[in-house]
Amino acid sequence: MVAARLARQQILDTDRTFHLVLTESALRWHVGSPEIMARQAEHLVTVTERPNVRLGIISWTRPVTHPVLHAFQIYDQRAAMVGTETAVAVITDARDVVDYETRFEIYARLSDYDDDARHVLRRLADEYRALQP
Predict the structure, then answer these.
(1) Among 1, 60, 130, 133, which lies 20 to 30 A Cα-Cα from 36?
(2) Domain extents for the chain?
(3) Is 35 helix (H, G, I), strand (E, B) or coil?
C-alpha cells in the first residue's frame, strides 16, 4: 500500500497543476492510528507548499448551501470522474461536466487556502496527537 501511495504521489512532481478541495469533515474520518492521522495532516501541510498544488479546506464550521454529496475529479472540460465503492463513473456529457465545474467553483470559494488551510491542518494534527495514549 505504501508503494502504491508513493507511486500515485509522483504525479505531483510533474509540470501539471492541481487544484484540490477537501472538507475538514473528511479529514476527521479517523481511519488510522492517531499518529498516522497526524502525519497525514502534516503531509498535507507540505503539499500546500508545492508551487503546482492549490489545496483548499472547507472548515467544518463554515455554513454551506451546497453540501458535498460525493467525491469527484475534473480532469478537463471534457470529463469528470465519480468514484464509488465498486466502480468509477466517467461523466462526459458536456452539461454534466459543467455542473461539476460549477459545484467545484462553489466549493473552492468556501475553502481556506495557504496559511489558513495550513492552520486547519496543523490544528487537526495536534488534535490527533492529543488522542495518542
Answers:
(1) 60
(2) 17-130
(3) helix
Q: In whole angstroms, give the CA distance from residue 113 to residue 126.
A: 19
Beta carbons within 8 Å of 87's beta carbon, 6+ residues apart: none
Output the DSSP codes for 88-128. EEEE--HHHHHHHHHHHHHHHHH-B-HHHHHHHHHHHHHHH
Neighbours of 41 (CB within 10 A): 22
Q: How far apart are CA 105 and CA 111, in angstroms?
A: 10
Q: Sign of torsion, CA 62 111 6 72?
A: positive
